[in-house]
Every structure is written in structure tokens, then in C-alpha cells.
Amino acid sequence: MLAALGFATIAVLLLLTMTKRASVLVALILLPVLAALIGGFAGDLGELILDGLSKVAPTGIMIAFAVLYFSLMVDAGLFDPLIRGLLRVAQGDPLRITVATAVLTLCVALDGDGASTFLITVSALLPVYKRLGMNPLVLSGVVCLGAGVMNMVPWGGPTVRAMAALKLDSSEVFNPVLPAMGFGVVWVLVASYLLGRRERNRLAALSPRGPATDVREGEDERDDREPAASTTLTATTEGESSRHTTPATADGERQALRAPGDGPGTVRVPPLPRTWRTWLNIFNLLLTITLLVCLIQEVMPLPVLFVLGFAIALLVNHPTWEQQQALLDKHAKSVVLVTTMIFAAGVLTGILTGTKMIDEMAEALVSVVPDSFGSHLPVAVAVTGMPLSLVFTPDAYYFGVLPVLAETAQGFGTDPAEVARAAILGQMTTGFPLSPLTASTFILVGMSGVSLGEHQRFIFRWAFATTLVMTAGALLTGAFPL
């Protein structure tokens, strides 16, 4: 019964969010609560929810201060040179921007941490997408594809779990699928090209001249809700009406509208002297590099690093109380939207784990595998891994499902390491940026400004295709047999 209740909860959750019948926040909280009541866990409900919230609390704290930190840096113009460089190279071409998004994501995601990958890439590239009027679903989708493939690295969560669960090392699990991962990287670049070409055609159909952007050296990015001093832009996204910015006509008006960045809720401050602004940009760059190095080296827990980093950046960039309060007020909405989703996901995972529904679901899944299918188990694991990311948490799959599957395969003469290799081709790798069971998914969709359902509908087939391409690559290179 618990297995059926768990599967039903996940199915209804996906149905409601993908069809927009209910907000993700409401569905993540009320559906598991209802399932717990039906399952007879009313007396333990408070403890289960609190346990789930406690487990995601560090992530929620990290995201709250990370969003504030990167929003401050965007407002301060830290990413302006990167944005201008991308726009200059792209020459207003959405296709080039989309491919550049994939390349940047593949590079940043080398650290194996999805949360930091999403924070960095979306913060840097969202202003570019706004500038060109591109669909933010393209941004979240391409970042999803790149981060999914790179999550296979030996220090990434899924591979570490697979090695720990089956007591294997990276030479047995990761090294044999490295060529398949290469296939996946190539596919991500191909997919980004196809998505970029489609976006270019969409924008060209909206405007006969296509999207155009005039980017001049030394200019600041502008909030798309305010007139720009020297740039006329048309930003159009699906489901939104066109917004046109017009040039200011007087020097005094330009001065009043100067903004340090193009982040959401840009704080309007008096223009800084050029020398001071240069030194401030250098300080922000050094602080951000130091923060990223500390993140990779795990000098301190991630929440602590972002708390300290934001406090230092806030004091230096906005030294007065009024400026600090204004920045917090402007970015409060972004913080609340992301963190509430993370804590809501904690309610879901806390109930599914605490009631043992997730364990029963794992056993039920394994029990339906026919004996005659044992010799083909690695292929089945590879193909089903990505969709099952929407159903199982990484711990539940790798520590609950995978060991049973590996033992079953071993009974048919299949090496358990082959099952582990197959699992990391999709389970919480290509699938994790779409799963409602991982907190980092809500960082991606929250910062991109898209809903979870829209994101899943837009990119699911592309992400699943990534797994299929890597599975074919693994078969061709002998990582596991057909």
C-alpha cells in the first residue's frame, strides 16, 4: 500500500505542476501531507515534516544568501564585461548565445555541484537573454542539459553514491563511461545549436529585422523595466507582451536613470567616480573568485561561505544603512520565491522518506523486473534512470534500488559495476535538473523566472535524448553489453 501511495503522490504532483492545475509550492506541501494522513501517519506528521525541513535548511540558507550575493554582483556590473563580450561575439544572434550558454555551463559544472552551477550561469547569462528578448526557458533548458551531463564526474553526487553503495572505485564506475560522457557533451552542443536556431527563427518571426542589440564599451546594463540611456531594445518572451525601451533625451535624465546593473530590482544609486568604480569592480571580482575557490575546496560549509561573502560585498558596495536596506527590499521577492520552494521540497522528501514510502517504492520497482530480463538489466537501468529521477531521491535510488538491481544482475552473470555505470547515465545526472525531489532544481527555475512545469515540458525530451545518446555511446565503447 505504501508503495502505491508513494507512486500516486509523485504522479499527481507531476500532473498538477505540469498542467498548471496547482502551484508547485502548494502541491509539494499538501500532497505529501494528504498521503501521510491516508497512510495512517497523522500522529507522526509534525516530526516527519520537521525532519525534512531540517535536512534542507542548510540548502535554503545557502540559496537565500547566494541569490542575494549574485544579484548584488549583477547590479554592481561584475558580469557586464562578460555580457558585452558575449553580445559582441554573438552579434545579436540567439543561436550563438545558446551555444555559448552550453559551453559556459559545461565548464562551470566541472565542480560537480548543481547549485553553484545554476547560481553562476543563470546570474551571468539572464541579463543577456533579457537583452535579446530570448525565451528564459531556453536558458534553463540548456543549463539543465549541460549540468546534467557534467554531474557524472567522479566527485558528483550520483557517481559517489553509486561507488559507495556497491563498494566500487572510480576506475570501475566512471572511467569506462568517460567516452559515453563525451558523446553526451557533443549531444549537448548539438541540442543547444538546435534550440538556438529555433529561438532565432522565433524572434525573427516576431520582428522582420530580428533581435538587435547595440552594446558599447563602458555602458552599463539596464533594467528592462526602465528607459536606457543609449540603447533601444525590444524584449519579447513567450506569454508576455512586447516591451520597448526608448532613449533618454536629456543629460540630467540619463544621470537619474543610471544603474549599476541589470539585475532584478536594480538599486538606483548616484553614479560613482570612474576610478572608485574601477577599484570596486576589481574588489568584487577578487571576492567572487575567492568565494568560488573556497566553494570548490570546501574550506567552509557552503551556507557559511555565502553568508560571509554577501555580508562583505554588501558592506563594501553599499556602505550606508539606507542603501543596504534598499537592496534587501528590492531582492526580497527573488529570495522568497526560491527558498520557499526548497523548504516545500523538504516537506515532500521528509514525508516520503520518514514514512518508508520511498523504500517500499524501491522494492516494488525491483520486484517487477522479470527474470528473463536479467542479462539486459544494464541497458534497462540506463534507459529508465533519467525518468526515475522524477520519482526517487538520489539516496533512495542509489542506496535502495541500485544494490538490489546489481545483485539481481550478478545472478545472471552480469558485473555489478556495469549496472552502476548504467545508472549514472541518467539517474540524477541528466534527470536531476528536472526533478522536484532535488532542491537545486528550484534554484534553476526560480532564478530563470520560469515555472517547474514549463521547464519540464520544454526540456524533458532533450534531457532524455541525452541519456539515450550516452547509452548508445556506452554500448559502442563496451562500457556494458546489450
Automatic annotation (TrEMBL):
Biased composition (Polar residues): 229-248
Subcellular location: Membrane
Entry keyword set: Membrane, Transmembrane, Transmembrane helix, Transport
Highest taxon, organism lineage: Bacteria
The protein, known as: Citrate transporter
Alphabetized InterPro entries for the sequence: Cit_transptr-like_dom (IPR004680), Citrate_transporter (IPR014738), Glcn_transporter (IPR003474)
Matching Pfam families: CitMHS
Record region (Disordered): 206-269
Signal peptide as annotated in the record: none
Membrane-protein topology: Multi-pass membrane protein
Domain Citrate transporter-like: 14-426
Main location: membrane
Segments passing through the bilayer: 29-49, 61-79, 137-157, 177-196, 282-315, 335-352, 373-392, 434-452, 459-480
